[in-house]
Amino acid sequence: MLKKRIIPCLDIKNGRTVKGVNFVDIQDAGDPVALARQYALQGADELVFLDITATIEARDTLIQLVEEIAANINIPFTVGGGITSVAQAKALIRAGADKVSVNSAAVKRPELVQELAAEFGSQCVVVAVDTKFEDPDWTVFVSGGRTPTGIKTLDWVKQMEALGAGEILLTSMNNDGTKAGFALDITEAVASSVQIPVIASGGAGTVEHFATLFGQTTASAGLAASIFHYGEIPVPELKSALKTKNIAIR
Question: What is the CATH number of the domain that holds 83?
Fold first, then answer.
């Protein structure tokens, strides 16, 4: 069985790490370079950096900050936010990103995923999917969760896999920042409908939430932000607790 991964996420706004609840009420959570260095030292398996306002502000991701973080860590590093072209992705990979993550731009122009996979290989292409349950279905939202697309989440992830995505980063907007647990139903529905790894995001608040995620879904990684940023559950503590529950963790 593949070992599960624990991934801290740095949501970046104006060069600072921030965290919200249900994609709103954004609060400062610290210096991204210091946090990144801390997570690498603590044994996080990977790090995700999302420039959360790049798409809204129609600008490129913060290259200088990506370079600075990459210079301070030795774990796989995924960068997303405002990437709309192969050229932008290339600049980020040159700056030290191992993978690039696309979200809104892929909805606008799905062939971007194909172009990125052709240029860098599927293993470098993460498609981030912000999903929200609004009766009767889970659908995809873009522009930092501001805009509904009406696209059904399961249809979308299958299309992204077919176009060459190597991984899905699935965030439940209903659960985001609530610390009430991951959205197990949609996470498992997505994980079982694609052959590529799925990172579950949104709602982590306790060790038990991760144990349930890995026990009840086939997600290959759990991503969280505030519980790590504010020191509520340090990465080493989370990993050793999961190991005692016989969950295969890296």
Answer: 3.20.20.70
Q: Is 51 a catalytic residue?
A: no
Task: Say if 234 falls within a structural domain.
Answer: yes
Pair 25, 63: CB distance under 8 Å: no
Tell me the residue range of the domain where 30 lies. 5-244
Residue at 18 is within a domain: yes
pLDDT score at 149 = 97
Residue of 60, 130, 155, 185 marked active site: 130
Q: Which tokens sit at 241?
A: 């607790």
Evaluate whether residue 250 is within a structural domain: no
Low-confidence ranges of the chain (pLDDT < 50): none
Helix (H, G, I), strand (E, B) or coil at 159: helix
- Mean pLDDT rounded to a whole number for the chain: 94
For the question of whether the overall pTM of this predicted structure is more than 0.85, the answer is yes
* Residue 131 placed within a domain: yes
* 130 belongs to the catalytic site: yes
Q: How many domains does the structure of the chain reveal?
A: 1
With CA atoms as reference, report the closest residue to 119 among 158, 160, 148, 91: 91
| Annotated active-site residue in 11, 45, 51, 176 | 11
Q: Which residues pair with 5 in a beta bridge?
A: 221
As to burial, measured by CB atoms within 10 angstroms (0-12 exposed, 13-18 middle, 19+ buried), residue 135 is: exposed
Tens-place pLDDT, residues 154-194: 999 999 999 999 999 999 999 998 999 999 999 999 999 99
Task: Give the list of residues 6+ apart from residue 189 with CB closer than 8 angstroms, or none.
Answer: 138, 153, 154
Radius of gyration of the chain (CA): 16
